[in-house]
Amino acid sequence: MTLKLNGSTSGSVSIDAPASTAGGADRTLTLPDDSGNGTILTTTSPKTGNIIQVQTGQVTAASTVSLGGAYNWTNLSAFNVQITPTATSSKILISGFFGGEADWEDHGVYFKLVRTVGGSGTDIAVGDADGSRLRVTGVVQPGYHGNDQDSTTAHCTIPNYLDSPSTTNQITYGVHMCADGASKTWYQNRTVGTTDGASYERLASWLTVMEVAG
Asked: Is the pLDDT score of 207 beyond 80?
């Protein structure tokens, strides 16, 4: 059954009931009776701050990523995440976690968040430019034994960061990494050592993005 509401001058809005309900039950939808007038929110007309959609890139498999030359930024692409905003006014709330071990001192391994649209990447969540200083989101946190590059994984947490991409094109968000020494390798979700023992742990990594109505 359809309830049709005609506009005062033109057009109409129809409210349709489903063809059937679970168990043939009668359903009642009650409109709130508050102190003022309001507007019905929809997925295409949300209230500012509402979460419109959530996308996650995650990886549990272990892998290796060559970081190339010193200060050569490399995408840890295994847990990239894509999202297509519904409006240019939307914000994107980003959070994540990733771990592993480098064959290099943890304090010499850096990471940053990158937003890519149409093949063009933009660094986000990094410090201001200041001479030749490296602009980063963070430094890999040392494991329980900072000088052990064999069986001590480190991890990095990206707490909620609010991005303003101002686009409705598809966006790829990713973590990029570099080291301050040449020919280094990042061992994603694993230790450098391959010994089959409890102390050679395996991890998971993920990046979650949420579109927030602007």
From this structure: yes
Domains of the chain: 46-212 (2.60.120.1340)
By 3-state DSSP, what share of the chain in percent is helix, strand and coil, each rounded to 5? 5, 45, 55
The DSSP symbol for 45 reads B
Please give the model's pTM, rounded to 2 decimal places: 0.83
182: Cβ–Cβ under 8 A, 6 or more apart, which residues? 68, 69, 70
CA pair distance 18, 135, nearest whole angstrom? 55
- For 120-136, what is each residue's pLDDT tens digit? 999 999 999 999 999 99
- Residues 177, 96: Cα–Cα separation, whole Å: 14
**DSSP assigned state of 141:** B
Tens of pLDDT along 154-200?
Answer: 989 999 999 999 999 999 999 999 999 999 999 999 999 999 999 89
| Burial status of residue 111 (CB atoms within 10 A of its CB: 0-12, 13-18, 19 or more) | buried
Q: Do residues 15 and 2 make contact, with C-beta atoms less than 8 angstroms apart?
A: yes
Q: 180 CB contacts (<8 Å, ≥6 apart)? A: 70, 71, 108, 109, 110
Tokens 């946190």 -> residue: 141
